[in-house]
Write a structure and sequence with these properties.
The protein contains 5 helices and 4 strands. By secondary structure, it is mainly α.
């Protein structure tokens, strides 16, 4: 199986469009509340000067937008890893102080890979494709442990490799 390195651009690309729209809406809502409503309901002496208040409003909106995008990322990423996306999405939303995000990134499964023969999603720890039975990871015929395709002898039992590969 080919392991491709993920890049930041590829990871951001999996965030669903609805998360981008919700993040934009959250940013606009924060701007409306902090720049439109709050100054009219407070005394002028209670707020910092307008340029500083605008910067605060922008930062709060950006932080809220990033949180929404991270929730969208967890939802999409958990689906592509074969995990329960609803459970993980609710976990990152309701567990306080970013502990849900930390738990997700510590406990997430490796990426699913397509079977070279039939294209079914296969876990990285699978030895055989559950649909077609193809030997995704070759095994030593003597001890039955997983080995690489280019090994000449088994690193576990020392015997010459007789790789079992199903076609």
């Amino acid at each position: 199986m080919n392991e491709s390195k993920s890049t930041f651009r590829n990871e951001v690309a999996i965030i669903p469009a609805v998360a981008w729209w919700i993040a934009l809406f959250a940013w606009v809502l924060v701007q409306f509340i902090l720049l439109g409503i709050v100054p009219h309901h407070t005394q002028p002496k209670e707020l910092p000067p307008m340029p500083l208040w605008s910067l605060i409003a922008t930062l709060v909106g950006v932080i809220l937008g990033v949180i929404v995008l991270m929730i969208g990322y967890v939802n999409a990423d958990s689906k592509r890893r074969g995990m329960n996306s609803l459970l993980w999405t609710l976990l990152v939303i309701f567990v306080p102080k970013a502990l849900g995000f930390i738990a997700y990134f510590l406990l997430r499964k490796p990426l699913m890979m397509p079977c070279p023969k039939c294209g079914t999603s296969v876990g990285s720890d699978f030895r055989f494709c559950p649909k077609c039975g193809y030997a995704v990871t070759p095994m030593c015929a003597h001890c039955g442990r997983s080995i690489h395709r280019d090994f000449a002898c088994c690193p576990y039992c020392g015997k010459n490799v007789a790789v079992t590969v199903q076609s």
